[in-house]
Amino acid sequence: MIEFLQQLINGLAQGSIYALIAIGYTMVFGVLRFINFAHGDVYMLGAFAGFYTAPKLMALSGGGPSYFGAGLVLVSAMLICAAIGVLIERLCYRPLRQHPRLTVLITAIGVSLLLESGGQYLFGADPEAFPEIIADSAIELPASWGILSSLTITVGQVIVVGSTLALLFILRTVVLHTKTGMAMRALSLNPIAASLAGVNIDAIISFTFAIGSAMAGAAGVLTSIQQPSIDPLMGINAGLKAFVAAVLGGIGNIPGAALGGLLIGLLEALVVGYVNPTYRDPLVFAVLILVLLFKPSGLLGKPEREKV
Amino acid sequence: MKSLNPKLLLVLALVLAAVANCFSPSLNPYYYDILITIGINIVLAVSLNLVIGYTGQFSLGHAGFMAVGAYFSAWVTLNFGFVLGATTPATVAVYVLALASGGLVAAAAGLLVGVPSLRLRGDYLAIVTLGFSEIIKGVIQNAEPLGAQRGLGGVVQHTDIFWTFSGVALAVYGILALVHSTYGSGFLAVRDDEIAAEAMGINTTKYKVLAFVIGAFFAGLAGGLYAHFKQFIHPEGFNFLKSVDIVVMVILGGMGSTAGVCLAAVILTILPELLRAVSDYPWLPEPVRNLADNRMILYSILLIVLMLNRPQGLFGKLNFGSGKS
Q1: Mutation test of the interface with chain B: which of A34, A96, A113, choosing the one with the most B Cβ atoms within 10 A?
Q2: Prediction ipTM score
Q3: What's CA A220's distance to the chain center, in Å?
Q4: Nearest to A93, CA basis, from A36, A10, A155
Q5: Nearest-CA distance B46 → chain A (Å)
Q6: Please, what is the Cα angle at B154 between B70 and B224, to 5 degrees?
Q7: CB contact, 8 Å: B288 with chain A?
């Protein structure tokens, strides 16, 4: 029982990371109806943005690991990633908006490969050690919790889950309670009608890319707090898992992406804990195939009619 | 070209491959290696072109089918090589059987991928095929009889110029003949407009699955050729990046242009070797000299620039035969 709870806790932390990345996939799909293959690599760039800015920002906040410094690193990585996301959309996807979807898909794969191989060239192919921005130690649980006090919960896990919840809350407010958020929802409902109603399509799409990429950047830094080894190809696997999470929750649906991310994280933790770690990746893809076969609209998504 | 019988060309290609094979001992082993690799890559690219170029279904898992063919055929020759004895004709027979069965098992895997893919298109299909190839890799990594994570070694070397280019001739002829037949126009119809094709009474599902099965068969064949040439296969040799390599050949050559894709396969096999030669010139700037290691940067930029400016590929609609596509 205790072991099961422990796996759930580990899964929750990993699932939060997937949820943050999955939100970017789902938001871009909502407004542009295409899968941004390069999104996983933006997450990688977030980790490296943190890696390069951390020494300076940590010095600014007084040297050693501190929450203030970690917050600065997180925000700077989010800003850098938002800029990169907007740039990618502006240079590579916007000129192709009226082209066949296959063309856009191939371009997205090209961008993904460029970020990976460019990353290997600029950052070096070997893994780098992410600086310690928060002392990631285990929390002493009070003995009065009885048997539960033998669980291991680390500071990193709490920070990851907490920051994810905070970011999700901010995102919810932006999407549901601001004018830009309303324009975003209108755009994903019907682009032509939205533009007739005065929504600046280009600006909203840029904004969507900025938010989605910022979330991925945050995920990149948060994951590095727990697993301080980062490399330029780390985005491939995480990106694919997050994509599965987005499809599981119903692509285009933001709460669905968060739910899917958590479920995938939990599934992974259970497979690692009880089955065999080598089956982790194949099983996640099996989930994807099963979802697409039996409920292509995902857990929370609505089925979409095809129009001629 | 129009007056030449395609079947005659096929026979001619086979004879040419046999003749070329007689000269292979006098060939520099380095060039020999490149030549065989070119052949295998052409088979891979041409078969993927059936799926992407002619049927319009984007697949990112071609290396998975290649892995199935490579492992199954290697397993056959390793375990049944002795059945017919050790004489040359017997080993050749086992080799051919291994190649064919490797192709067939890969085709069965293609059926497995094709059936769920009926309900998907575009982006989803790309990720599902990628997922399937990851699953195949995962299964191999856990299969002890196939060497698991250590890779499978000790495969007998059988693949030579004759077998490789017979495979090339078979793949090119088979796929061109199929696509240019009345029956095969269905593939093009599915690519051009799936809904319209369906309205015309074409069974789009059947064509999509068929494209996957045939594409997977030839990928498996290429895998068998590869395993019996390199004599050692490893699951990581059939990863996502290998699939991307093949996709780049198809897109660079021009989707739906068999001749263009063959040309692209040749160029993209030779290019890394040429780039490697560049590193011998010390007076060149460092990034240029390291280009061989960073060829993926070059490929990805090529992909993006091509899609932005020339989506039909470098060689566009270039094709074998009469010029109609």
Answers
A1: A113
A2: 0.82
A3: 8
A4: A36
A5: 18
A6: 20
A7: no
What is the Cα–Cα distance from A173 to B300, expressed in whole angstroms?
38
pLDDT for the residue numbered A86: 95
> Hey, is the C-beta of A99 within 8 angstroms of any chain B C-beta?
yes
* HEC sequence for A155-176: HHHHHHHHHHHHHHHHHHHHHH
DSSP A163-218: HHHHHHHHHHHHHHHSHHHHHHHHHHH-HHHHHHTT--HHHHHHHHHHHHHHHHHH
pLDDT for res B322: 43
Distance from CA of B56 to the nearest CA of A (A): 8
Chain B residues close to A282, C-beta within 8 Å:
134-135, 138-139
Query: Closest chain B residue to A244 measured between Cα atoms?
Result: B127
DSSP string across A55-110: HHHHHHTTSS--HHHHHHHHHHHHHHHHHHHHHHIIIIIGGGTTS-HHHHHHHHHH
Q: Does the pLDDT of residue A166 top 80, yes or no?
A: yes
Residue A109 near residue A41 (C-beta atoms within 8 A):
no
**What is the C-alpha to C-alpha distance for residues B269 and B263, in angstroms, rounded to an integer?**
10
**Residue whose tokens read 């060149």:** B284
Closest CA to B217 of B162, B174, B271, B251: B174
The token duo for B121 is 């298109």
Q: Would the CA dihedral through A219, A223, A225, A228 be positive or negative? A: negative
Instruction: Give A277: exposed, middle or buried? Use CB within 10 Å, 0-12, 13-18, 19+.
Output: exposed
Identify the CA nearest to A17 among candidates A275, A189, A219. Answer: A219
Q: By the 8 A CB rule, do A188 and A31 touch?
A: yes
* C-alpha separations of A123 from A41, A116, B196 in Å: 13, 10, 49
More confident residue, B3 or B104: B104
The span from the CA of B40 to the CA of B32, in Å, is: 13
Please answer yes or no on whether B303 and A34 come within 8 Å at the CB atom. Answer: no
- Residue B21 pLDDT: 76
Q: Do B119 and A293 touch (CB under 8 A)?
A: yes
Using alpha carbons, select from A36, A106, A115 the residue that is nearest to residue B313: A106
pLDDT of B198: 86
Q: What's the half-sphere exposure (Cβ side, CA atoms, 13 Å) at A207?
A: 18
Question: Residue A116 contacts by C-beta under 8 Å, 6 or more apart in sequence?
Answer: A41, A44, A232, A233, A235, A236, B296
Question: Where do the structural domains in chain B lie, given as residue ranges?
Answer: 6-18+29-239
Chain B contact for A117 (CB, 8 A cutoff): yes
Closest CA to A219 of A233, A208, A235: A235
Spell out where B95-244 has E strands. Answer: none
Contact A95 B127 (CB under 8 A): no
**pLDDT confidence tier of residue B3, bands split at 50, 70 and 90:** very low
Q: What angle do CA A66, A72, A78 make, to 5 degrees?
A: 135
What is the Cα–Cα distance from A131 to A228, expressed in whole angstroms?
7
Q: What is the pLDDT of residues B225-269, one digit of tens each?
A: 999 898 888 888 888 888 988 998 998 888 888 888 999 999 888
**CA B275 to CA B290: how far, in whole Å?**
8
Size of interface A-B (CB pairs under 8 A): 114
Give the residue on B whose Cα is nearest the Cα of A117.
B297
Domains of chain A: 2-135+150-294 (1.10.3470)
